[in-house]
Amino acid sequence: MEINILNEERLGTLDALLSNAYCRSQMFLSKQMAQLRPELTMPMFSEITHRFQTARAEVRVSLLQCLLPWLENMELVAASVPPATPLSYIMFQTKGFVMQL
Asked: In this structure, are residues 58 and 22 in contact, taking their beta carbons and an 8 Å threshold?
């Protein structure tokens, strides 16, 4: 009986270690792919966000971590926002904002 408990504890520890290593390797691969294949950004963004909708809470964390490197390849553009100028940057900085338009 004690041997079974020890084996279960080892398997639980092994599962936790493998789960952590698997998550890290997914993030590493996602980062490498985002850097090497930026043309896949929109398909990857679409796929990850599609799966996010039905994923369990713990899986959503992993999906967001894998999505992060792909977001660096994206540029969001709003048609209703005028283009940034040096003057607009100065105006926002003096109002306490740190972000440039």
From this structure: no
53 sits in which H/E element: none
Q: How far, CA to CA in Å, does 40 sit from each of 23, 28, 61, 77?
A: 21, 16, 21, 19
Residue 31 near residue 67 (C-beta atoms within 8 A): no
Is 23:62 a contact under the CB 8 Å cutoff?
Answer: yes
- Tell whether the model's pLDDT for residue 100 goes beyond 50: no
Contact 60, 52 (CB under 8 A): yes
* Residue pLDDT, tens place only, 58-79: 889 889 999 999 999 988 776 6
Q: Where are the domains of the chain?
A: 2-96
Residue 6, token pair as written in the block: 């020890």
For residues 27 and 61, is the Cβ–Cβ distance under 8 A?
Answer: no
Contact 74, 45 (CB under 8 A): yes
